[in-house]
Amino acid sequence: MQVRIKRVYTEPDVHDGLRVLVDRLWPRGLSRSRARIDLWLREIAPTTELRKWFGHDPSRWDEFQRRYRLELSHNTEQVNSLVQELGKGPVTLLYGSKDVSHNEAVVLEGFLRKSLRS
User: How far is Cα 59 from Cα 70, in angstroms, rounded to an integer?
Assistant: First the structure.
């Protein structure tokens, strides 16, 4: 499995493979042509309630991860869709947050790796 994580505002490159936006909201100030997104899986993103509760507060990170993994475990259609894409080649999960360590793409990538090992 070749999966990368990248901030959506970072310039695309040839090694990205399929570029998948995993945010529920479109990134501010970014045109669709500049983003070069191949697939937008907004339903795989944390629910609006969870996203607002977390608010990118690092003190809530552990609980956010737990809650988001629970949401992912009930979102088999979207997760399976992404797993199928991973079987075809490299995938880059794109997120909009400024925080590179505390965002949904980090949790999703770990969830995918664990799911594929099982």
Answer: 19
Q: pLDDT by residue (tens digit) across 53-94?
A: 999 999 999 999 999 999 999 999 999 999 999 999 999 999
Provide the strand spans (E) within 14-103: 18-21, 39-40, 91-95
Residue 95's Cβ-count burial label (10 Å; 0-12, 13-18, 19+) is buried
pTM (two decimals): 0.93
The domain limits of the chain are 3-117
Within 10 A of 10 (CB to CB), how many other CB atoms are there?
10
Q: What SS3 class is residue 92?
A: strand
Q: Are 90 and 17 in contact (CB under 8 A)?
A: yes
> Which run of H or of E encompasses 7?
strand 3-7
